[in-house]
C-alpha cells in the first residue's frame, strides 16, 4: 500500500470564507479562524496535487470575475476521478494494436490511461506551484497543445461545474458564477416566463434535491 | 453448452422495438415470449438520483460499455479501420429500455416521399441527378400504408404536438408540410422556452413556417390505450443521456414494461449476451432454430425458438447476421450481397451558435420542447439549380445546455481558451448562447457499409463490426446551404455574434451527432437489394424478423423512433393476422 498523501489547505491561503469537502463530509473554514485542513489524496502525491491545483487555478483563475478552480476544489475533484474507473480506462476499449498517430477524427487512440498521462505530464511541470503566476502562465502556454493540457483543461471545467458529490464545485461556487441552479424537480411554472430577464433560483445540489446521499461513479467498481 | 426448453418466440434486445413486439405478441397471443437483454435491469425509481451531468452526460453511465465491444471505423476501403475507443458520434444504449431510456424524445414522422425516395427523385429530377455512387432505394412500404401505425405509436407514447395536416386539410401553426394525419396529436404541444419563442417569431418574419417540436416528453398527464398513465413534463432539462425522473418522457420502461409485467407468457432475461442465430442448414432449410448466448454466469446457452426477432439496434442486428453467416455479406466492389449495405448516419450539427445580450434561462426546458421548421426539408423546396438533393429541419430546442458541456462556448471574437479573459467570456456567455440545430437526410451510397473487422475483437473474441463511412458532396453542399440560412435566422433573432458550423469534411467520430445510425439490414421490395421484406421478415429465413432502424434503406431527416415503432406495429399485425396461421413468407 502506498504511503497516505494529503493535500493541506489553509484557509488564509485561499482567502475569505471557504467550504471544503473532505471525502463525503463537508468542513467549513474561515480565513479568520487561522485553520488548515488535510484532505486525504487517493491518487496524487502531495507534490503532484499542488502542481495540479496551481495549474487549474491558471486555467480557471480566482479573479475579479469571481472564485475559480481553487475555491471549487478542482484538484481534489481530479484526484478522485483519476483514482476511479475513468482514471484507469475501465470503460475504454483498450485492445491492441494501438495507432498512436491516428487522425483526430478517430478520437484518442493511444495506450496511455488518464493516470499515466497525468503522471507523465506533471513531471514536466515540476515546481510550477512555486512560480509566480506570470511564469506559471508562460510554462502552461508552452504545453497548451498537448494531450495532457487538454485533459487538464477539460477536467478543470468538470471540477468547476460538476455536482458537489464529485468533490468539485464546492458549495456550488461554479454554479453560482453562471447562474445554474443545479437539478430542479420542476420548472413548470417558469419555463415560458421571465423572457429576456435572468431567472436565478437558489442553487441546490443533488443531495439537497433528493434528500439523500448519491454515490458517484468514481466511488463504485 | 446448456440447451433450454424451446419457447415460441425469442427476442434479442430489450429496447423500444423488442419490448413493443413482446407487448404485442404477449397481449394478442398465448405464445411464450422470451426477451434476451445483454445489459441489466433499470432502477427507474432511481432516475432522480441520476440528474448528474458528470456521471450521465460526460461519463455516459447509461451507454453500452465499449471496453467490451465497440465498432471500428474507416472512411473508405483503402484505409485501415481503427476502433472507436470511447463513445463519440453516436451513443448506443444498454440495459432494459436500451437507447429509448436516454433519448431526447423528439418525435416527428418521416415525410411521405422518404419511403419512395428513389422513384420520386427519378420522377422529378431524372436519374442523372442522383449521385453517381448512390444506393438509394424505395422502402417497399408507403406513407399511406404506415399512417395508421404512426398514429398507434403516437398514442402509445402520448406524443405532444400540433397537427398541420389532418386528412389533407392544412392547419396554420402546425407543420403544414407534414404527411396527412388521421387525427390530432394525443396531447397538446409542450411549453415554449424563451430561445425557442424568439426562433418562432424571427423565422415567421422571414417567411418560414415554424411549429412546435413533436415531443414524447408529454405536455400533460396522459393515459394511453393500454391503460398506462404517465405524468406531464416539468421541464427539468435532464432528458438526453438521462432517464426521466418522473416518467414524463416516454421510455420503454414506463410505457411498455407496465403491460409486459402483467403478461405471464412474457419473460425478460438480463445479462444474456446473444452471440449467434443458429440455423440448421441440413434439416430445417430456410429456418432459424434459436439463438446462443452467454448468460450472466458466463455459461453458454442455446435457446431454441419457433420465431426469432433481432431487436438489438442497427449495429448489433447487422453484426449478429454477419457472425451467424445468415445471408450474403455485402461486397461494395461487386455490389453483391445484402447484409451490411446502406449504412447511413443522419446529418446532424449545430448549424448556428448564437450569442445574445440577454440571458436565456436555458436550464429550463426538455430535450424536445421547442420550435422547428420543415421549409428546408426533403423536397419541399425546388432543387433544380441547387448542387444537392433533399434537406432537413432546423430547430431551436433547450436540449444540452448543462454547464460542463456548455460553459466555455464563446464567440470567435474571444481568442483565449483558458485564463482570466476566457473565464470572463465563458461566464458571460454561458446563459446567452443558443443553438439552431440541423437534422438532415443522409443518402445511401455504395461505399458506405458494414462488415466484420479483420483485426479487432470483442471481449469474447468475436470480430468487431467495421463501419466504412464518409460524407459525399451531397451532404457537404446541403450543409453549406442550411448553415447560411441558420446564420441568417440567428441574426434576425438579434444575436450579437453568430458562429456558423464549419461544414462537413471527413466523418468525425468524436463529435456527437445523433444516435441515428441506420441501415445494414434494410427492407425493400427485392431480395437482391434488401435483407428484409416490407414486413421486416428475412427474405430467405421466414421465421426470422429484424426490427429497428437497421431496416431503413436511407436516413430521413426525422428522428427514427416513431418510424421504428410504426414498422414494428405493422410487422406485429402481419404476424398475428397472417404468419401464425401460415408460417411462411409474408411477401
Give a concise summary.
The complex is a heterodimer of chains A (221) and B (587). With 221 residues, chain A is an alpha+beta fold.
Q: How many E strands of chain A?
A: 4
Total beta strands of chain B: 24
* Envelope shape of chain B: globular
Q: Please compute the radius of gyration of chain A using only Cα atoms.
A: 19 Å
The quaternary structure here is heterodimer
Q: Could you say which overall geometry of chain A the principal axes of the C-alpha atoms support?
A: globular
Helix content of chain B: 10-25%
Number of helices of chain A: 9
Q: Main sheet of chain A?
A: 2 strands, antiparallel
Provide keyphrases for this structure:
heterodimer, A: alpha+beta, two-stranded antiparallel sheet, 9 helices, 35% helix, B: 587 residues, eight-stranded mixed β-sheet, six-stranded antiparallel β-sheet, 12 helices
Walk me through what this model shows:
Chain A is α+β, with helices and mostly antiparallel strands and 221 residues long. In chain A, 35% of the residues lie in helices and 9% in strands. In chain A, helix 2 (46-59) packs across helix 4 (74-83), helix 4 crosses helix 7 and helix 5 packs across helix 7 (147-161). The longest helix of chain A is centred in the last third of the chain and has 15 residues, at 147-161. Residues 12-26 of chain A have low confidence and may be disordered. Chain B has 587 residues and is of the alpha/beta class. In chain B, the strands form six sheets. In chain B, strands 1, 2, 3, 11, 12, 13, 14 and 24 form an eight-stranded mixed β-sheet that branches. Chain B has a six-stranded antiparallel β-sheet with strand order 8-17-18-19-16-22. In chain B, a hairpin with a 5-residue loop joins strand 9 and strand 10 (229-230). In chain B, helix 1 (16-28) runs parallel beside helix 12 and helix 4 packs across helix 12 (561-579). Chain B is globular, with a radius of gyration of 23 Å. The two termini of chain B are 36 Å apart. The model of chain B has no long low-confidence stretch (mean pLDDT 97). Chains A and B meet through helix 7, helix 8 and helix 9 of A and helix 2, strand 5, helix 10 and strand 20 of B.
